[in-house]
Amino acid sequence: MMRVTNSMISRNSMTNMNHNKVNVDTLNTQMTTQKKIIRPSDDPIIAVRALRLRSNLSELNQYYERNIPDAQSWMEITEGALKNMEKLLENIYTKCVDGSTDVKTQEDRAAILKDLQSLRKQIYAEGNTDCAGRSVFTGYKTNSQLTFLQDDQKAKYEITESLSYKDIEEKRFYTNDVTVPNTPGEVAAGVPVGDMPQEHVFKRIRLSYEDLEEIKTEDILDSLKYIDENGVEQPLQGAYYEIEDRADTIGVTTNISYNDWIEGGCKLGPGEVIYFKETGELILGDDVATFLGSNKTQLSINYQKEGFTEGEVRPEHYFDCKNITDETNPITYVKENQEIKYTVAFNQELTVNTQASNVLDADIGRDVDELTNAVQAAIAAHDKVDKLKAMQQEQQYSDEESQAKLKEWLEAAEKEASYADDNMQKVYARGITKFQNHMDRVKLARTDLGSRESRLKLTENRMSNQQSTFEQLKSRNEDMELSDIIIEYTAAYNAYQASLQASAKANGQTLLNYL
Length: 515
Description:
By secondary structure, this protein is an alpha+beta fold.
């Protein structure tokens, strides 16, 4: 039998008391912090699980508290802009319906003109909407506005614009406009039958800009191209065509000004194309229009534009182009799909932006301009009629010869006014379809945005639930209930006190007490 000495009892008592004291200290610390561990070494399993849960929770908080609210803000601002665009386009659509059906007074025309001018400015202003200083409709170029905010006569671009046979439309041109006489001598000249206002109807393709640089005839092979039925790119100039009993090659003219062409009587051969840099139009002969339409051709047109006015769209948001304002440092832009994606959940991205090219056509401003030009022409033509009627009542033109000549002038002016009214109704009737299509694009964009907003809302709800779940898991892994700690602490404290008492009794007696 092993002999137990007093020193052995003393050491064992000290060890047991220290163990109980450490246990009391640990539980006291847990009661103060309400945490299971203080150091990883206290329980490595809990520590590893805590690190993993904290990392996941931190990532989840980034999604739920930052990314999702940022995405919601971007989408809400975009939704507001699209809603305003739809209202603006609806107002223009209403003006088109009104202008295409009723006979208007001068006051009605003036009211339409004023409304259209203000609506045109506001459409692209909505396109410049930003979220915290970042443009929402310009793709990756969030530091760039959709339009020029002020006139920039130095800006110069090389632009490649893609068009198709679907862009061919009818346009009316007018020659021999009436110039109201101001003197008896001018009245006496009258209006010969050959100088009466005339209407010319042609097919045309309109580019997105006007006031362009001249395209040299020798460069036309590189500038005007079409895609044939085999998908091969071909030059438009010199293209051979057969239309009914006629066969020829297409010729392109680029060196005539728009005003000279009008003054010359709008002459155009059936196989001819005329490019007007002033208006940014390609006027097509009948055979050319038929050739392009029957072959369902796709056109690619290269041109340059120097100088932009306030409100014109920046080419880089719509076209393949090159900014050559600084010719020593040109900037090339390639039109591409530029989706800005936010990570809104674990392994889940959501596109938050809507690109302008998917909402508004680059030439929607020109559509409005044609409406305003048509109503302005009608206003001007009726002003001429009113002025000539007033001249008929003046004393200086009361003689029979002057009255006869004024009648000629009035007949010409009334014919011009009739043409202007007819053109206004046709332009506005065509505008009904155009602006219905514009509205449909905006509505489609709003629908797409709404579906993404719904997905974001569902993700937000899921992230909220996951956040609560991870918080609970983290709490279960790291935290302790105060009531449980108190029970354990009380038991440990009692054990410590008991060990003190037992040690005092065991160490208080020695062998000498029994001798």
